[in-house]
Amino acid sequence: MRQWFSSLARIRAPHTPRHYSASATPSTRPDPFSLLSPQLTELRHSLLSLLDSGHPRLSEITRYYFLHPSKQIRPIIVLLFSRATNGLGRNWEHKLWEAQTSGAGGRAEELDSPLTRPDILNDWNPRKPTDTTPFTSSHLSLRPLAPHRPSPPHRSTHSTSHEPKLYDTEYILPTQTRLAQIVEMMHTASLLHDDVIDESALRRGQPSAPAAFGNKLSILGGNFVLGRASAALSRLGDPEVTDLIASVLSNLVEGEILQTKAVDVQNSVKSAERQGEHLTRIQDAWNIYLQKTYLKTASLMAKGARAAVTLGGCKEGDIWREIAYAYGRNLGIAFQLVDDILDYDSAAATLGKPGGADLQLGLTTGPALYAWEEHPDMGALISRKFEGSGDVEKARDFVARSSALDRTRELAQKYADKAKEVLQQLPESDAKSALEVLAERVIKRKS
């Protein structure tokens, strides 16, 4: 655990940060959900059009989780960082030009246009009859290719260096809005797959996709959502953003595999001479747990935030990209730590999914590791993944009779505080304030 927490980013910007005035009290800071309410409503509405299919059953399952509201924390991070940094990047003017110039590829209409001509790929979709063509159609035209994109305005080589300055604290580029939809699609696709792997019966207080549609359709639905997200990602036109978001898929798989790794509890005994070795094994287990947490949860938040800032024109060497990544990484780990607390501390009705699911799945999370430190007998339960008779109940008792939940919450608070700390390098704005509030909300949430 020390290894991971000591690696938290400590970022210093190349300018003196400004601080809140005395009037900027917690009660006056903007609520992130209220601040973005119109954008989130439109984002969810237009996102559904990205999931249309010519197969009604497939459309039904891919829309299933999107129609049951999520916390939307991932798109919120993307949208808030867009508003908090647009104009600061050295390539902002070019990104703004792309968003405002027909044919440059960054306008909303161009992001929504069909990827291919309907007479070339027969991808029939009855919801989009003007953009798709049935396979049986014999019509094939040879229309000329679309004109080349216009050339960006020439920038003088003698121009002065870029001065970081916010463009408009409410403006979000169309590519950044689409990125917010993409990260939500990737998250939801992972839920479709996770609920099959975990044999989960509930999701967001409703029957899970596998319970409603079966495992096969859930897996295929998740694959379909990932396919549509990949196509949308390719339209953003930024190689680094493509690399960042595509790598999240690998991270999700790596995290899932790492989660199955057995915890080494050998020689977990009470004797004083072996206590040091016992604590070392716990430390190793913590490092694996936090690495898994980054891969499965924090990676998408961190890389989504960095991708949003990159789409806003921030290039290599711009501190804003590092701030975004550090915030998302720390907030993501804090988010998962709280999630692991709630698995012990809340009922299924509150969580919207079965309580105690981690123990039932044989997973060793933060509270179990802290309980193991205080009650060495917990090691035997961990080693057999809580599969013995009465193991789940014993494990919950060890956690209840220890300071595990309080210590896990303290660790989550440290990560949330670190997320807030890196934000101090940003110029003052409502978006920056909302990002701070979001970090506080993550710690206080009950579901």
TL;DR of this structure?
By secondary structure, this protein is an all-alpha fold.
Would you write up a description of this structure?
- Helices cover 57% and strands 1% of the residues.
- It is mainly alpha-helical and 447 residues long.
- The protein has a two-stranded antiparallel sheet with strand order 1-2.
- It is globular, with a radius of gyration of 24 Å.
Structural descriptors:
mainly alpha; single chain; 447 residues; 2 strands; 57% helix
Strand order of the largest sheet: 1-2
User: Mean pLDDT, nearest integer?
Assistant: 85
Radius of gyration, CA atoms, in whole angstroms: 24 Å
Count of helix runs: 20
Please write the string of helix (H) and strand (E) elements: HHHHHHHHEEHHHHHHHHHHHH
Supply the helix-strand structural class: mainly alpha
- The percentage of residues in β strands lies in under 5%
Topology of this protein?
Elements: H1 2-5, H2 32-35, H3 37-47, H4 56-64, H5 73-85, H6 92-100, H7 108-112, H8 174-197, E1 202-203, E2 206-207, H9 209-213, H10 215-234, H11 239-259, H12 275-311, H13 319-345, H14 348-351, H15 357-360, H16 366-374, H17 378-383, H18 391-400, H19 404-423, H20 430-444
Antiparallel strand pairs: 1-2
Helix pairs in contact: 3-8, 4-10, 5-8, 5-12, 5-20, 8-10, 8-12, 11-12, 12-13, 12-16, 13-19, 16-18, 16-19, 19-20
